[in-house]
Amino acid sequence: MTDRSALLPVFARTDLSFERGEGSWLVADTGERYLDFGAGIAVNALGHAHPHLVEALQQQAAKLWHTSNLYRIPEGERLASRLCANSFADVVFFANSGAEANEAALKMARKFQSASGRPERWRVIAFNGAFHGRTLATIAAGGSPKHLEGFGPAVEGFDHVDVGNEAQLKAAIGPETAAIIIEPIQGESGVKPVAPSFLRFLREICDANDLLLIFDEVQSGMGRTGHLFAHQGTGVEPDIMTLAKGIGGGFPLGACLATDRAAAGMTAGAHGSTFGGNPLAMAVGNAVMDVLLEDGFLADVAQKGLVLKQKLAELADRHRGVVAEIRGEGLMLGVRCHVPPAELVGALLRQHVLTVPAGDNVVRLLPPLTITAEDIDSAIGALDAALTEVETALAQGRSAAE
Ligand SMILES: *Cc1c(COP(=O)(O)O)cnc(C)c1O
């Protein structure tokens, strides 16, 4: 590879590329094997080249790729009904990414209010530290100054408060408020689970004020926490939920799920997508669901998550100089460090383990949900070595990468 590529340089890429994947492992073009504890940022939920997914995509690829949403897509109707049968939702809109799923959710919330005779309600309360995508509306919803910088006036209509602050939230509700959007576990800002009591408070305040509650489960959904959707472990249900990342197991797919009531204004022509829910994506989405809904699959994810978290806690005890905290749920775990996360991510890369940095000095561990006990042990061994390396560097007053 040449040093300069023709790709727009918006990603600070690691100088490493992969030729193929096998389960939880990626094989670099040099032939070296890496244990994938990032899963393409929680996307490869079933690892790489899962036979059931490969077969579904190959079979569909030989039959039909695309027809547009001018016609019925039976596989899409099937996936939508399965998502609804396993959640609070009655209807599904398919998109191609998380940001698009959130755009659909935000539009739906405004439309709900306007169709209910309250067009003056169009603002959405979001949370500090949130991440909802990179479109103009979703960077405004996320509110991160880093993501908004240089892109002109932010799309209007978002009010930000701190997660967990009930007084601030109550004060933020005004005559123009339409909805509240929250990640049940904030991902990009550092794997921060939201207390179920706060989600319950949001549910109550939405019910009392006729606001819609939107859960962004783009990262936390699709089995990641050991529940099909993270909120199912909290006893609180939203009116609208967005999904992407794991839902296509690596095939680009997003979804916006809603109750009939919340979706009431979304009639023919109100929203659309050329590619959304196309036959290829629907075939793979159904194949992912086949596996997630297998008897015992999610319970196994939860169990492996507990084992991994327990082992991480033991590591944290032995590496107090680097590790501040272990947090998260299921196989969506974060190692909060006393050093920038790039230090540990880099040291793990030298151990041939792939992880993903997040905010708040957190290194995210997001292995495929199909990770084996043996591979969890390998990762723990690599983490032990990587933490020792970072610790030694820290004691010598330098960066582990030097
Ligand atoms: C990744 C992510 C998004 C954006 O998804 P894209 O597919 O990159 O548009 C939105 N919300 C959350 C919680 C995410 O983790």
Automatic annotation (TrEMBL):
<dbReference type="InterPro" id="IPR015422">
    <property type="entry name" value="PyrdxlP-dep_Trfase_small"/>
</dbReference>
<feature type="binding site">
    <location>
        <position position="273"/>
    </location>
    <ligand>
        <name>N(2)-acetyl-L-ornithine</name>
    </ligand>
</feature>
<comment type="pathway">
    <text>Amino-acid biosynthesis; L-arginine biosynthesis; N(2)-acetyl-L-ornithine from L-glutamate: step 4/4.</text>
</comment>
<feature type="modified residue" description="N6-(pyridoxal phosphate)lysine">
    <location>
        <position position="245"/>
    </location>
</feature>
<feature type="binding site">
    <location>
        <position position="131"/>
    </location>
    <ligand>
        <name>pyridoxal 5'-phosphate</name>
    </ligand>
</feature>
<feature type="binding site">
    <location>
        <begin position="98"/>
        <end position="99"/>
    </location>
    <ligand>
        <name>pyridoxal 5'-phosphate</name>
    </ligand>
</feature>
<keyword id="KW-0055">Arginine biosynthesis</keyword>
<keyword id="KW-0032">Aminotransferase</keyword>
<dbReference type="InterPro" id="IPR004636">
    <property type="entry name" value="AcOrn/SuccOrn_fam"/>
</dbReference>
<protein>
    <recommendedName>
        <fullName>Acetylornithine aminotransferase</fullName>
        <ecNumber>2.6.1.11</ecNumber>
    </recommendedName>
</protein>
<keyword id="KW-0808">Transferase</keyword>
<keyword id="KW-0663">Pyridoxal phosphate</keyword>
<dbReference type="InterPro" id="IPR005814">
    <property type="entry name" value="Aminotrans_3"/>
</dbReference>
<dbReference type="InterPro" id="IPR015424">
    <property type="entry name" value="PyrdxlP-dep_Trfase"/>
</dbReference>
<dbReference type="GO" id="GO:0008483">
    <property type="term" value="F:transaminase activity"/>
</dbReference>
<feature type="binding site">
    <location>
        <position position="134"/>
    </location>
    <ligand>
        <name>N(2)-acetyl-L-ornithine</name>
    </ligand>
</feature>
<dbReference type="InterPro" id="IPR050103">
    <property type="entry name" value="Class-III_PLP-dep_AT"/>
</dbReference>
<dbReference type="InterPro" id="IPR049704">
    <property type="entry name" value="Aminotrans_3_PPA_site"/>
</dbReference>
<comment type="similarity">
    <text>Belongs to the class-III pyridoxal-phosphate-dependent aminotransferase family. ArgD subfamily.</text>
</comment>
<dbReference type="Pfam" id="PF00202">
    <property type="entry name" value="Aminotran_3"/>
</dbReference>
<comment type="subunit">
    <text>Homodimer.</text>
</comment>
<dbReference type="InterPro" id="IPR015421">
    <property type="entry name" value="PyrdxlP-dep_Trfase_major"/>
</dbReference>
<feature type="binding site">
    <location>
        <begin position="216"/>
        <end position="219"/>
    </location>
    <ligand>
        <name>pyridoxal 5'-phosphate</name>
    </ligand>
</feature>
<keyword id="KW-0963">Cytoplasm</keyword>
<feature type="binding site">
    <location>
        <position position="274"/>
    </location>
    <ligand>
        <name>pyridoxal 5'-phosphate</name>
    </ligand>
</feature>
<keyword id="KW-0028">Amino-acid biosynthesis</keyword>
